[in-house]
Write a structure and sequence with these properties.
Pfam families: dCMP_cyt_deam_1
Organism: Paenibacillus anaericanus
Order of helices and strands: HEEHEEHHEHEHE
Strand order of the largest sheet: 2-1-5-6-7
GO molecular function: dCMP deaminase activity; zinc ion binding
Protein name: dCMP deaminase family protein
CATH topology of one domain: Cytidine Deaminase, domain 2
Cofactor: Zn(2+)
Oligomer: single chain
Number of strands: 7
CATH architecture of one domain: 3-Layer(aba) Sandwich
Length: 172
Amino acid sequence: MNHDTRKDWDTYFMDIAYMVSTRSRCNRRHVGAVLVQGKKLLGTAYNGAPSGVPDCSEAGCMIAEEYELVTVDAEEKMIKKQRCVRTIHAEQNLLLFTDRIDREGSSVYVTDQPCWTCANMLANSGITEIVFHRPYLKDAEKVTAMMDQKGISFRRLDAYQPPQEAVGKVED
């Protein structure tokens, strides 16, 4: 990169989210999130076990299986979803460690598209925009529909390239 060229704001804040994700000790997925109001960074968070509690790298993943009824091509079918319940998601930690007043009208940059639970929480948090990079196909359709209903800008940075030192684990 030419040192005279500045990164655009989306790249700048997504780079920070990816760098924050390097703090995660999750064996399955490293996720980072940042809260931005205007061009001001107000908070950062990553996924992991609660403070002072052994994390997945120390105690192993705590996998829960869930089943969801979905309609595919006008046919209902049951799909199995696995998730680790030991960790708090990056978006949830971001909401826990930022103030409501700071979230009003703000944007959240997150390395991964929010799951259904995180999307619900973000939808009620006061933010007006979610920007993500990696898709999360398990919940993508219903999350996108809810964001449309709420009037929250929900966009993926397709062409974005994360900083090499921050490329972490991903599991679909």
